[in-house]
Amino acid sequence: MDIKKKCQPHLWLLTGTGEGHVFAKSLLKEGWKITVSVVSERASLPYKKLPLENILIGPLGSEDEIRNIIINGRNNQTGFHCVVDLTHPFAIKITPTISRICKELDQPYIRYERPLNDSANAFLIKNFCDLANYDLENKSILLAIGIRKLQEAIPVLISLGAKVYARVLANPESLKRSLSSSILNKNCAVLNPSVSKDGKIEKALIRKWSIDGVICRQSGGANEKLWHQICENTDIDLWLLERPPSLSDINSIDNYEKLRKRLKYI
């Protein structure tokens, strides 16, 4: 299909992973018009150099808001050829909501689901209470799980006698929530993981705090792979908070080529 000869169909990409920017660049090169949704101003920065139709910034607060974006697209143009859901695997509310609304409006929809990494060298936990199955007394545990999960994990680890440390992302919401949690301020490292792709900063934190184990999410992607490598190389434990199950009624894709093929047949 020669997209450019078909008036450049328009895609709406809901992004929340590093793949979002990669997919957007590739789709633009193939001639698609793109509108992108991101949750924050900071998340929008990588997209501002791309020739997008629009960048929608902020959480999609309600079903009506999602519905109105799709309907307004139809009223103001030809509508979206497809809605592509590239949100984070742990953002469990948006995917069922956007999928349901797309079905309701007969709007084509594709969900991208990151493939799972090999977790043979890690301990899988369904929730933080599962950590009670391990002896964490006086162990130094580093949390790299996102600010919302951080607040759930800290009380459990403290109750198990662990010394708790955290890597916190450099944005206002994360800083505010970490400061209001029960973790000691001196036990938090504020950084942007995008500047530490080789893991040098994370390895330095492990040495500085004599870390015995790391807890991160089974989210797939570069961040989880990095922790697998670091923990294996430094011979410390790695716990993965198990990814929420995929929705049974959504037939997702797990790479860009599958997305291209699926778009051809819509």
Share of helical residues:
25-40%
SS summary, helix count? 9
Structural class: alpha/beta
By DSSP, the count of extended strands is: 11
- Runs in which pLDDT lies below 50 for 5 or more consecutive residues are 1-6
Mean pLDDT: 87
N-to-C CA distance: 11 Å
- Strand portion, in percent? 15-25%
The coarse silhouette is elongated
- Indicate how many domains the architecture comprises: 2
CATH topology of the largest domain: Rossmann fold
| Major sheet | 6 strands, parallel
Provide the succession of SSEs. Answer: EHEHEHEHEEEHEHEHEHEH
Tell me the name of the CATH class of the largest domain.
Answer: Alpha Beta
Question: What does this entry look like structurally?
Answer:
It is built from nine helices and eleven strands. By secondary structure, it is α/β, with parallel strands linked by helices. The chain folds into two domains: 3-115 and 246-264, Rossmann fold (3-Layer(aba) Sandwich); 123-241, 3-Layer(aba) Sandwich (Rossmann fold), CATH 3.40.50.10470. Mean pLDDT is 87; it is low at 1-6.
Task: Provide key terms for this protein.
Rossmann fold; alpha/beta; 266 residues; disordered N terminus
Quick gist of this model?
The chain has helices at 19-29, 41-44, 63-76, 94-104, 147-159, 172-179, 200-209, 221-234, 256-264, and strands at 10-15, 33-38, 54-57, 82-86, 109-111, 123-125, 140-144, 163-169, 188-191, 213-217, 237-241. It has 266 residues and is α/β, with parallel strands linked by helices. A six-stranded parallel β-sheet has the order 6-11-10-7-8-9, with helices on both faces. The protein has a five-stranded parallel β-sheet with strand order 3-2-1-4-5, with helices on both faces.
